[in-house]
Amino acid sequence: MPYLPATTIAAILAQIERKDLILPAIQREYVWKPQQVVALFDSIMRGYPIGSFLSWRVEQATAQEFRFYDFLNSYNELDMRHNPERAVPPNQPVVAVLDGQQRLTSLNIGLRGTYAMKKKYAWSGIPENYPARTLHVSLHGHAPGNAAGLLYDLRFLSEAQLAALDPEEARYWLPVPAVLSAGPGMGLWRVLAERDLGNDTDAMEIASLLAEKVHSEHSVHFFEEADQDIERVLDIFIRVNSGGTVLSYSDLLLSIATAQWKNRDARKEVHGLVDELNATGIGFRFSKDLILKTGLVLSGVPDVAFKVKNFTAANMARLDAMWDEIAASLRLTVGLLSDFGLSGTSLTASSIVIPLAQYVHHRGLDQSYREAASAAGDRAALKNWVLRALIVPGIWGSGLDQLLQSLRNTILEHGDAGFPVDEIDTMMAGRGKSLTVTDELIETILDYEFGDGETFGVLAIMFPHVNTRNIHHVDHIVPRARLNRASLRTAGVDDGTIEEILAKRDGLSNLELLEGSENVSKSAKMPLDWAQEVYTSPEAYSAYLDRNALPELIYDPADYLMFYETRRSLLRTRILRAFGLSEPPEKAPHASATQAETIPPLDESIEASGVELLDD
Fold first, then answer.
1. Which of 214, 268, 357, 371 is the most exposed place for a label (fewest CB within 10 A)?
2. Is the pLDDT of residue 65 over 80?
3. 372-399: string of b/e by CB count within 10 Å (b at 16+)?
């Protein structure tokens, strides 16, 4: 692997502009944040090394097996996040970047383009709230003291921000692209002269330093790999990416699917579906990993692990042929999860989507399933199972691939007429993934708090009368504002009791699900005052208490601990009912303190532990 002669930043950006240097589909898309770009330019100006780069010289025959993409020079987090595809002529070899895409794209954006991010506190999805910002450097001098340790003051500024500055101040903010376009030599002096800074020593010093780093200093070092063996190239790629922003192995495998699909662009399809699914309801946080894994499961690939050997031409051809129905199954599945009241915040394990999509696909269900009266019972069973599987710890961790394969087999064998809850529960228990409640599990559930990902699911499964298709808030029954130190001291509560109340203020026993409008009307009222305003008859008030497993409500914060413990007991009964039990389970024996922890198979250990590959 030869080490190419060092070159300048300007020369490399010229190669990118001429499209002599491109990206293989093996690369994920651009993910750096503005602060990372600023830190990179600060390092360059300070003379710090910015790391070496790795390119791959792809011969003509190999190049035709893959798709390639151009670098971005303008990024917009709303609608310009995907790299444009680069068509490679059949008789032309290419040079593709294996390591360094994030840094090179950041250089390209900083010196040739813009970065558009949402304005703080602005509404999402509105183009006007994503103004294009150009990287600028302050010519006043060094940056003021800052937590990031930056020596130079570099900012992404929009035209509106510059226009709001005093003209005297604005002229000291030099657009970084002007340094590149000025070229070496006297061009930079002319740029400064136009700003009446041609004789300003400090301004000239900073601008000249940046120009020297861009045009003159040979700071860019490339290794070049020429081997055409894709397995070797993947191995090199994995090994050199050892720091920075998380990259999953699916980024690598997506390139193989992209190259092998004949009827469509896998990269566009997968990224487009991710965006669509994440826009469902009030929003989810799915990744392309989930989409690819679902594709492997639903297309019937025997081994669903992320391995190169599972992305064969035959498997990818089947995935290509089935893509429309797989995508439709995922859309319906995510719609159901939204109907169940779940979102990116409360969906604590995205992998639960996969068996649901398998069930939807196996039965050939369509969007009418979400509303059909004849399917109400099946939807209720599905919702109950989903919520149980989300709130029981340890279900979606180690051994995930084997669990997904077993879930697929159980659904295919028993899921013709309805979701096979009993058969799935039996299978999962046999795999050590039991959804059966234990006394220890009840205590774990009762200890969930406001803000925990599982809390919504716990409340939803305990109170099935809640129509989760409407937006609900997790609400404090006794408002937090009435349980702060000042309020409790005013109520005459001693300091020791205050600490105990504060420790239990956000606990599950003080939480309920309220529709958004109800939550707003309740505000910071004590629960008894609010309930008597809303439920004016004794019958309505009593029904409200019964529906929500509430003891007699209180109007004095000093009575909080009594209320909390009483409701904890009532919730214990509701949990048992939700899991189909009428009596508390026997206490499970504790594992031996000397019992050795089992080590999962190597392929599982990476996935289960959350370890992921890294890029620059």
1. 371
2. no
3. eeeeeebbeebbbbbbbbbbbeebbbbb
Contacts of 227 (CB under 8 A, 6+ apart): 233
From the centroid of its chain, how far is CA 12? Answer: 32
What is the C-alpha separation between 573 and 583, in angstroms, rounded? 8
pLDDT in tens, 195-225: 999 889 999 999 999 999 999 999 999 988 8
User: How far apart are alpha carbons 399 and 407 in whole angstroms?
Assistant: 12
Between CA 592 and CA 600, with CA 594 as vertex, the angle to 5 degrees is 95
CA dist list (Å): 145 to 12, 42, 97, 138, 152: 33, 14, 36, 14, 10
Q: Do 479 and 534 fall into the same domain?
A: yes
- Number of separate domains in the chain: 3
**Do 267 and 214 share a domain, yes or no?**
no
Q: By C-alpha distance, which of 215, 226, 317 is closest to 263?
A: 317
Contact 86, 22 (CB under 8 A): yes
Contact 130, 76 (CB under 8 A): yes
Cα–Cα dist 54/362, whole Å: 45
Q: Nearest Cα to 9, choosing from 182, 153, 221, 243?
A: 221
- Are β-strands 21-24 and 74-76 bridged in parallel, bridged antiparallel, or unpaired? unpaired
Tokens of residue 600, six digits: 């999962």
Q: What's CA 110's distance to the chain center, in Å?
A: 25
What's the rounded Cα separation, in Å, for the pair 159 and 177?
14
Please say whether the dihedral angle defined by the alpha carbons of residues 117, 119, 124 and 128, taken in this order, is positive or negative.
negative
Query: What does the pLDDT average to over 460-473?
Result: 70
Which of 399, 428, 463 is the C-terminal boundary of a domain? 399
CB hemisphere CA count around 248 (13 angstroms):
17
Spatial separation of the C-alpha atoms in residues 481 and 247, rounded to whole Å: 42
Place of tokens 């003021």: 144
Q: Which of 108-122, 213-227, 239-253, 568-582 has the least mean pLDDT?
A: 239-253
Q: Examine residue 235 and state whether it is found in any structural domain, yes or no.
A: no
In terms of C-beta density within 10 A (0-12 exposed, 13-18 middle, 19 or more buried), how is residue 536 classed? exposed
**Could you list the residue range(s) of the whole structural domain that residue 264 is in?**
248-399
Q: Environment class of residue 486 by beta-carbon count within 10 Å: exposed (0-12), middle (13-18) or buried (19+)? A: exposed
In a domain, 154, yes or no: yes
**The two three-digit tokens of residue 382, written as one number:** 């599905």
* In a shared domain, residues 212 and 334: no
Q: Are residues 466 and 352 in the same domain?
A: no
How distant is the alpha carbon of residue 408 from its chain centre? 26
- Residue 252 pLDDT level (bands cut at 50, 70, 90): low
Is residue 343 in a domain? yes
pLDDT over threshold 60, residue 607:
no
Q: Greatest CA span in the chain, whole angstroms? A: 87
Tokens for 370, please give them. 């979400």
* 366: number of Cβ within 10 Å: 13
Q: CB atoms < 10 A from the CB of 143, how many?
A: 18
One domain for residues 552 and 476: yes
Tokens encoding 347: 């969906």
Do residues 449 and 506 lie in contact, with contact meaning Cβ atoms separated by under 8 Å? Answer: yes
* DSSP codes, 218-230: --B-EEEE----H
Tens digits of residue pLDDT in 443-466: 888 888 998 877 887 787 777 666
56 pLDDT higher than 60: yes
